[in-house]
Design a protein that fits this description.
The termini are far apart. With 200 residues, this protein is mainly α. 68% of the residues lie in helices and 0% in strands. The protein has a single domain (9-193), classed as Tetracycline Repressor, domain 2. It is built from 10 helices and no strands.
């Protein structure tokens, strides 16, 4: 009879979530394996068993963050309206950030100085941008967007949603502001700005 797994995937996810919380709220000095284990009510042995040490833990943290983020963006269904699909990807971006705020700062800032994720993790991070680029390409091909380089349009969209989400998560928006409708209207206004102008 096989021995039951004591260090299972559920514990791994709890450790990664807590590691993200410590990094994003208290900074890199707060993330020690001893404290992490204590916060999750496990042992440092379990942390080493699952990750092999702090550098591997950090890489797993980046990998998990971009995996969840990428899955949510890729899950936006593709329709026959690529411009609306871009809007929906922008909305999914915010939902993902709000669902896992402990990962957002980790993904998009150098919260751990001098740490470089693995090539595989960097590749996974780059893939999160692909749904935006692909749908911008579709919008240009369909004649909905102007014939600007697709990477420029996609980067402008990415930067706009990133800025708004960052302001929201960092508590830098005006108090009492209902963010959701402003956020969606900003995305739609941005996509409208890239529409091809018709003569007439």
């Amino acid at each position: 009879m096989p021995r039951p797994k004591t260090h299972d995937d559920a514990l791994r996810v709890r450790l990664l979530d807590r590691a993200g919380e410590l990094l994003s709220t208290e900074g890199p000095n707060a993330l020690s394996l001893r404290r992490l284990a204590a916060d999750v009510n496990t042992s440092t042995t379990a942390v080493y068993s699952l990750f092999g040490g702090k550098p591997a833990l950090l890489n797993a943290l980046y990998e998990e963050a971009f995996h969840r983020f990428g899955e949510r963006l890729a899950a936006v269904p593709q329709t026959d309206d690529p411009v609306e699909d871009i809007v929906q990807i922008g909305l999914a971006y915010r939902r993902s950030a709000l669902a896992d705020p402990q990962f957002y700062l980790v993904m998009f800032s150098k919260v751990v100085p001098n740490f470089e994720p693995s090539e595989e993790t960097n590749a996974a991070a780059a893939q999160t941008f692909k749904p935006v680029v692909d749908n911008v390409d579709r919008a240009i091909a369909a004649g909905a967007f102007t014939d600007a380089p697709q990477e420029q349009i996609a980067l402008a969209m990415w930067g706009m949603v990133h800025g708004l989400v960052s302001l929201e998560l960092n508590g830098n928006l005006p108090s009492g502001l209902e963010v959701s409708p402003v956020y969606e209207r900003a995305i739609r206004a941005h996509t409208d700005g890239w529409r091809k102008q018709t003569a007439g």
